[in-house]
């Protein structure tokens, strides 16, 4: 069975509370339930992880890369400056799909730049929590087609 890592970056533990007009009303648990339900439908296993700490996310990627066949990640604020996270994702040589709940290109100028996008196979931005579902489907399709 394919195993996919789904990573929520800093502040995503506050979903449903933090700026609901931007990020929606769904809690991280509700988002995770959506992801797990879709994973079951796709017949894949997901390992969902959230941390507010850059180094812990890097450790999670390093520790599990032999187990995962792909990564779905919402890097949160790390999107815009974390070369360390970018390098960790690039090092494991797995298909990565970057997700953002809000449309980062309709927000503040500093959010328009992603250091993750150049090493990702794709980016989904602005489709709310459903973006995680689309990202999961995309990474599974990429793996099954052998196009990575």
List keywords for this structure.
5 strands, 5-stranded parallel β-sheet, 148 residues, single chain, 5 helices, EC 4.2.1.10, Rossmann fold
Total of DSSP H or I helical runs spanning 4+ residues: 5
Main sheet makeup = 5 strands, parallel
CATH class: Alpha Beta
CA radius of gyration: 14 Å
Give the strand content. 15-25%
Ends apart, CA distance between termini: 18 Å
CATH architecture call: 3-Layer(aba) Sandwich
SSE topology string: EHHEHEHEEH
Number of domains: 1
In total, how many beta strands? 5
What structural class is derived from the secondary structure elements?
alpha/beta
Low-confidence stretches: none
Helix content: 25-40%
Shape from CA axes? globular
Account of the 3D structure:
- The chain is of the alpha/beta class and 148 residues long.
- It is built from five helices and five strands.
- Strands 2-1-3-4-5 form a five-stranded parallel beta sheet, sandwiched between helices.
- Strand 3, helix 4 (83-91) and strand 4 (96-100) form a beta-alpha-beta unit.
- Helix 3 (54-64) packs parallel to helix 4 (83-91).
- The longest helix has 16 residues, at 130-145.
- The two termini are 18 Å apart.
- The mean pLDDT is 93.
